[in-house]
Structures are given as structure tokens and as C-alpha cells.
Amino acid sequence: MQYTPACWTPPQKTARDDARYGRRFCRPTLSFRRIDTAGQSFKRVLMDKRSSFVGPAIALLAAAASVFLWFQPAPAGAPPEMMRVAAVVVVAISLWATSVLPEYFTAIIFFFLAMVLTDSGAPTVFSGFHSAAVWMIFGGLIIGASVQETGFGKTLASVLLKFFPRSYLGILFGITVVAAVLGFLIPSNTGRIVIMMPIFMALADQIGFAAGSRGRAGVALAVAAGSVYPGLAVLPAAVPNLGWLGAVESIHGIKVTYGEYLIANFPPIGIVSIVAIPLICRFLFPDKIGTGTTDIEAAKTSAAQTRLIMVLTAALGLWLTDFAHGISPAWIALGAAVFCMLPRVGMVPTSLMVGKVSYAPWFFVAGVIGMGALVAKAGLGTYISATLFDIVPLTQGHDFLNFAIVSAVGMAMSIVTTVPGQPAIMTSLSADIAAATGWPLMTVLMTQPLSWAMALFAYQFPPIILAAHLGGVSMRRVANLLLAMCALAWFVMLPAQYLWWELLGFFS
Fold first, then answer.
1. Phi/psi of residue 265, nearest 5 degrees
2. Which SS3 state, helix, strand or coil, does residue 2 take?
3. Which of 18, 61, 342, 477 is deepest in the core (most CB within 10 A)?
4. Alpha-carbon dihedral angle through residues 293, 294, 295, 298, given to the nearest 10 degrees
5. If DSSP states are collapsed to H, E and C, what string results for 466-489?
6. CA torsion, points 159, 162, 166, 167, in degrees to nearest 10?
């Protein structure tokens, strides 16, 4: 039993009385409601304090480790500043992994520490701002805001609802399949997220998923995961794939065909992720569609929406034909953003950049790319990977164990260098790995996409960060998804890929 106030409103007779007495008065009453016991309250507070202390504690340990690394001499043959770079990287990774500070603020801290404490120089530290990926995100932020401001997302969502299954799980499957199919058409996972996220956030509104709800997080992360993970198995569909292709050609002189890459990776990575992503999102973020919310009248297309459709259609056409004209998807996205805000022609005012667009993911991705460049220049990634292989050596004749070890080392490298930066290091080590395992060189090279699917932290996948921002999803929920996908990669994708490659004879 709990003693609580019940409220009443006095009778109101005149307008004057309404002005004087139109407020609520409370009187005490007794109600029989279940209340928390002292033990339950203490447990809740304890858990809250525990969760609030974990991140800062890890950050403090990382700070202590960075100080220790700072005073350590560089290994023989390594650049003199390797350990100073390692100290800065440990601080940045720990802050990004624990989300003690906002991700963009950690990026600014990284810029400061790298410039003051290392000799790498601005061209390396700020190389992220020269990256096409950063400008792809910038263009994507403008396009996403334009889709939202014009109401185009709501219009298209009402159309999609006619074709999607009328259940939460069915909608998650529909989103994942659409994202995976677009992976064969749009050569950029960031581009796919930019186009899809505003549309499916409008769909979430249509089916009654309010901001902050579990269902809305499930929809947003289905878009994110569906745009990223199946695309890892399609050669032109993601930045890591293209970085890997360039490294393979420049280091080993091997030209990999579209079909070779697809056959090796799509069954164990693409198909498994398409099936698993909706189930994982449904399990992590359970929710139900509101009653009657799927019966939506078709919205009318405005003049601004028509112009936006023309811009997006042109951008899509240029993305599909990039092999012919050679224009980067980033510059196509940037051009689309310019047309969205062009006076008298565009759909949204230039003031959109001031009030409606957040540049937090822009700074964050620039910091992540800069950290990868810093690690590569200092030789830190190569040193760490070589050390790991010395600790856990490879042995010929133990194919499954070797496969797991190579994947684990690739996973560790992506934590230090991020997923887009990992191929440069692992590709340079592939010849030595092939000699140690007895595998063909191409087999060793093809092990990398699986290790990208083992990412544990959001900063490793910059497109995931953009998707979380556009979808309004917290980093805690993103972390839950990545942990589940990492477990899926280890316990389902890895055995599936090993058995698939055994069937194809890749290990002999």
C-alpha cells in the first residue's frame, strides 16, 4: 500500500472563475499499487552506478596504459615515434569504445593529442578531411535532411507499406532484403544508408514507432546492418572491399574478378547476414506494430518532392555507372547535396546547414580515418599483427585452426586500424601467411571480408555511425547489435565459410 496524492479540479462557473481557479488541487488518498521494496531500489541504484562507473574506469586504465607506452622505447627497426603513436591510439580507442565522451569530441581530442605528442604532421592527422568517405557523409547528411524536410520519406513509406508484410519481423526482413539488393546497384554502403534511412524512419513513424522506442531502433539498425554486412560480400558495394581490391593489385599484382569474390564470400557472409539480421533486430529490440497503423492513405507528391526525386534518380544513375565515368560516389553525393540547396532550383534553403544538420558524424569519421593513417605511417599495425602471429603460430595441416587464427588477427587489426584501414596491413602479410599455412595466396587474401564482419565497436564501421545518427539510435543499442553480429560471424559465418571453401577446394 502506498500513500499518494490524488488530484481534483474545482467547479468552474465563469470565465473569470476559470482564470482564477483553473488550476489543479491535490488531496491525499490511499491507493493500492505495487511499489519497489528497499532492496529493489538499492539494486536498481547499484546497477545504475555500476554501469556509470564501467566506462570511466576503462578510460582511466587506458590512460594509465598510454602513459606506460609513452615511456617505452620503440622496438628494434621500428620508427622512433611508434610508442608515442600507440599511446595516442590507446586513448582514442578506449574513449570511442566506452562512449565516455561524445564520439565527435573524442575525435577532436585525438586531433589535439596527435598533433602535440607525435611528429606525424597535419597531412597525416587530418587526412580524414581529404578522404572521399568524409565528403560522402557530408553529402549524405544534406540529402537525408532534404528527404525529411520535403516529406518525401513519408510519401515513399506509405507506398512501401503496401508491399511489406504487416508484422514487425516481416518489415525487418523487407528492409534487410531491400538494403541487400541495393548493394548490387549502389557502390557505397554510405550512399545506401543516406537514401534508405530517412525513408524507413518515416515508415517507422507510420507504423507507430516513436522516437526512442525499441521498434524504431530495430528498423534503423536493420537499415544499417542490411546496408553494411551483405555488402561485404559484393566487391563494389563497400569501401573496405575497394580498399582490399586496390591493395591486392598494388602489393601482389593480382586482379580479382567480381564473380570470384562473390562466389567465395556471398553464401557464408551475404546470405547468412540477410537471414540473421531481422531475427537479431527482432530479438534485441522487441516491439509490436500499432493497431491499424499500417492502413495508410497514399500521400500526394509535392513539387519539391518531384524535384528531389529527379536529383536522387540522377545520383542513382551516376552511382550505377561509376565504372564508365569514374566519378567517385562521394562527389556524386556532394553534387546532389548542392542541387538540394541550390537557390530557386533546390528543395530546401541553405539555412538547412545551420539548423537542421548535425556535423558530429563528419568530425567523428574524419578522426577515425586520421587514426588509421597515423597507425599505418608509424608501422604500428604491421608490428602488432606480426607479434600476434608469433604468439599464436600457424601450422600447416590444421586448416580450421589456421582459419580461425587468421580471422582473429584480422579482427584485432580492424580494432586498431578500423575496417577500411585493415586491408592494407593484412594484405601486406598475406604472402607470409600463405607460406606458413600452405594455402594458395588467393585463399589467404579472401579471409579478410569475414574478419570485417567481426567488428566489435561502432567506430570500426563509419557508415554504422552515420546510420545511428540519422536514425536517432543510441550507441548502447548499436553496441548490442555489433556484439550480436560479431558472435554470428564467429559461430555461424566462420564455420559456414570454412565448410564452403572446403567444398570448393580453396585450401589445397
1. -115, -30
2. strand
3. 477
4. 110
5. HHHHHHCCCHHHHHHHHHHHHHHH
6. -30
Q: Check if the beta carbon of residue 378 is closer than 8 Å to that of residue 69.
A: no
Residue 382 CB neighbour total at 10 angstroms: 18
**3-state DSSP assignment of residue 30:** strand
Q: Contact, 137 vs 469, CB < 8 A?
A: no
Is the per-residue pLDDT at 206 higher than 90? no
- The number of beta carbons lying within 10 Å of the beta carbon of residue 271 is 15
Among residues 430, 418, 96, which one has the least CA distance to residue 240? Answer: 418
**Cα–Cα dist 125/111, whole Å:** 6
Q: What is the pLDDT of residues 360-375, one digit of tens each?
A: 777 877 887 788 788 8
- Residue 381 C-alpha cell reads as 599495425
**Is there a contact between 100 and 57 (Cβ–Cβ < 8 Å)?**
no
Instruction: Confirm if 230 and 186 have CB atoms less than 8 A apart.
Output: no
Mean pLDDT of all residues in 338-342: 86
For 1-19, what is each residue's pLDDT tens digit?
Answer: 343 444 444 444 444 444 4
- Domain boundaries, given as residue ranges, for the chain: 2-31, 56-130, 136-362, 389-504
Could you tell me how far CA 491 lies from the centroid of its own chain? 21
Strand 2-8, strand 25-31: pairing: antiparallel
Q: Kindly give the residue spans of alpha helices, DSSP state H, lying in 207-328.
A: 214-228, 239-252, 258-265, 272-284, 303-320, 322-325
Q: Of 300, 312, 304, which Cα lies nearest the Cα of 158?
A: 300
Q: Is the pTM of this model over 0.70?
A: yes
CB atoms within 10 A of CB 393: 9
Calculate the average pLDDT of the chain.
80
Distance CA 83, CA 88 (A): 9
**How many whole angstroms from its chain centre is CA 220?**
11
* Cα–Cα dist 363/367, whole Å: 6
Averaged pLDDT, 311-322: 80
| Whole-number Å distance between alpha carbons of 505 and 508 | 6
pLDDT tens column, 62-91? 778 778 878 788 787 777 788 888 888 888
Cα 253 → chain centroid: 31
Closest by CA position to 350, among listed 361, 359, 339, 358: 339
Phi, psi of 399 (to 5 degrees): -65, -45
Match 564482419 to its residue by C-alpha cell: 453
> 315: buried, middle or exposed (CB in 10 Å: 19+, 13-18, 0-12)?
buried
Give the count of beta carbons closer than 10 Å to the beta carbon of residue 2.
9
Task: Report residue 287 as a C-alpha cell.
Answer: 516491439
User: Is 341 in contact with 354 (CB distance < 8 Å)?
Assistant: no
Most confident of 59-73, 90-104, 288-302, 400-414: 400-414
